[in-house]
Each structure stands twice: as structure tokens, then as C-alpha cells.
Design goal:
Elements (H helix, E strand, L loop, with lengths): L2 E4 L9 H4 L3 H5 L8 E5 L1 H9 L4 E7 L3 H14 L9 E5 L1 H5 L13 E5 L6 H6 L7 E5 L5 H13 L4 E5 L8 H6 L9 E4 L1 H14 L3 E5 L6 E2 L3 H4 L4 E5 L8 H6 L2 E4 L11 H12 L6
Parallel strand pairs: 1-4, 3-4, 6-7, 6-11, 7-8, 9-11, 9-12, 10-12
Antiparallel strand pairs: 2-5, 3-5
Helix pairs in contact: 3-4, 7-12
Keywords: Methyltransferase, Transferase
Pfam family, one: SpoU_methylase
GO molecular function, one term: RNA binding
């Protein structure tokens, strides 16, 4: 049985995560404890549950209630995920949703869940959890577009990247758009944050001390192609991707062991960071050895 609560209005504070709090406010909602995030669609919600995230509540539009609950129950059954019997599930009708400002709120992609965040490990503790044999990790430096973050995580999950480190000035992988674009793989690929100031001052050094060679995606006089044989021979490799506009910081590039590039047709010098990550992960990830 599900704990269904049929709403007659949208004023209750329990609905704040869905109706009145933005992403940043959700992030800080429970300080000093980790905050909340919104997972969208039964597939994303189930993957979050499977990864151990605890739901605070769900919000489902009444006309889609049967479909969304069936999808959730099916996903949880086949993946042996703990059920939602005690979780409040708020059910709202279409008329109430249309009362919201901005022309009406539409749960276009199905159920929403307000989920509790978990505390992320420090960089050193995170690196200690990586595989001992041939680890491949990605560093996202100042990647600010949630859509790109989600796409990069989806490629990382598919192409053998063992973990992702995100600088704190990047978009949050748990933003609703990021987790949706990632199809829930942000709950599948191990990841953590590193403070942007720490990364700028000593991030590459910390990776070196942990035994990693670093490969910065950038164009320089000594740049090598991503299929260069010497990259495959590196035991521990960290692939560093930069922001959508400026790219990587100069000190990140100069401190790295390699600068790497994707060979391009004449007249084009770069790809969108999400597209570039997919090609780099295809060539440098562990899909070939796992």
C-alpha cells in the first residue's frame, strides 16, 4: 500500500521543495545537514532509491497516478529496491496545478521526488575508493551548464569511467535538469565535489600524489591525440575537462602531464564539452578492459 495524500490546495509547507524553493535553496534547506534535491520521472527516482538516497516525499499528478506508481513499483521490483510504503505521496489534480503562477505547473516527465542528499567524501577519501587496477576518472572544472553535466555523467557511466570529480563552481550533478539528462546515472557513477579554490591551488598536485597522471583536454603545441598509445599505457589516468567557454585554466594545463585533443576536420577547433567527453571516454575509458 502507498501513503497517498490527495491535496485540495498547494499552501502546505511540505510542498515547498516542489513549489517554492529553487535549486540553491534546496541545497541549503537542512543545514548543517545535507539538503534536498528533486528527482524527476520514475526511472530517475528508482535509480536514486537503488543508490541509497532516502525520499522525503513524492508529488504525482492525479491523472498520471496509476501509470507513475506502476512504473515505480515495476522498477523497484526488478531491481530489488526498497519500497515507498511509508513515504508521503502527494497527489495533485490538474486544476490545482494550473493555479500556479507562470501559466501553470506541468509534471511533464512524470512523478517528482524530494530526496535527501548524502554527504560527499573528501577528495583523498574518494580517490581511495577507486579501483586499484587501471582506474580512469574525470575532472569537471567549472562546467556550469546542468545539461552538459548530465550528458557527461551519462557518457561516463556508459564508457567505463570509474569516478567523477566536480569542482564546486560547476553545476550540481543533482540539479533536476542534470539528473534527468543523465537518466539517473548521477546515482550510478561515484562522484564527489572539490572546492574550486582548493582545486585551483593544489588540485593537480593532489592527483599526482595519489599516483595519477593527468590529461588536460586543451590545444597546445605539445598536445597529443586521444588515441596516442602512451595514454593507454598509463595505469592511473585523470581526464580533465574545462568550462564551456574559456576551457581549462592555464595553471591546470601547465601542471598536467599531457594535453590531449580530439582530431578535427579543418576549420573546427573544438566540440561542446559533453560531446568531447563522450569521445574521450570512448577512447580512454575502461570499456575495453572490463
Amino acid at each position: 500500500m502507498h501513503n497517498l495524500i490527495f491535496l485540495t490546495d498547494l499552501t502546505g509547507s511540505d510542498l515547498d521543495p516542489y513549489m517554492r524553493l529553487n535549486e540553491a535553496q534546496l541545497f541549503h534547506a537542512l543545514e548543517p545537514n545535507p539538503g534536498l534535491f528533486i528527482a524527476e520521472s520514475p526511472k530517475v527516482i528508482e535509480r536514486a532509491l537503488r543508490a541509497g538516497y532516502r525520499p522525503a516525499s513524492l508529488l504525482i499528478e492525479e491523472k498520471e497516478l496509476e501509470r507513475d506508481l506502476a512504473d515505480l513499483d515495476h522498477e523497484m521490483a526488478i531491481n530489488q529496491t526498497r519500497g515507498l510504503e511509508q513515504t508521503p505521496i502527494y497527489v495533485v489534480n490538474s486544476k490545482l496545478l494550473r493555479q500556479l503562477a507562470g501559466g501553470g505547473y506541468n509534471l511533464l516527465r512524470g512523478a517528482l521526488a524530494a530526496m535527501h542528499r548524502v554527504k560527499r567524501p573528501s577528495l583523498n577519501n574518494f580517490l581511495a575508493t577507486m579501483p586499484s587496477d587501471h582506474p580512469r576518472i574525470a575532472i569537471l572544472e567549472s562546467v556550469v551548464n546542468p545539461t552538459n553535466i548530465g550528458a557527461i555523467f551519462r557518457s561516463a557511466a556508459a564508457l567505463g569511467i570509474d569516478g567523477v570529480i566536480v569542482t564546486s563552481d560547476s553545476a550540481d550533478p543533482l540539479y533536476r535538469r542534470a539528473s534527468r539528462v543523465a537518466m539517473g546515472t548521477v546515482f550510478q557513477v561515484p562522484w564527489t565535489y572539490v572546492d574550486a579554490k582548493v582545486w585551483q591551488s593544489e588540485g593537480v598536485d593532489l592527483l599526482h600524489r595519489a599516483g595519477y597522471k593527468t590529461a588536460a583536454m586543451a590545444l597546445r603545441h605539445n598536445t597529443v591525440d586521444i588515441d596516442d598509445p602512451q595514454l593507454a599505457e598509463v595505469d592511473r589516468l585523470a581526464i580533465i575537462l574545462g568550462s564551456e567557454g574559456p576551457g581549462l585554466r592555464e595553471n591546470t594545463i601547465t601542471q598536467s602531464d599531457f594535453t590531449i585533443k580530439i582530431p578535427m576536420a579543418t576549420g573546427v577547433d573544438s566540440l561542446n564539452v559533453a560531446a568531447a567527453s563522450a569521445l574521450a571516454f570512448w577512447e580512454l575509458g575502461n570499456r575495453k578492459v572490463k
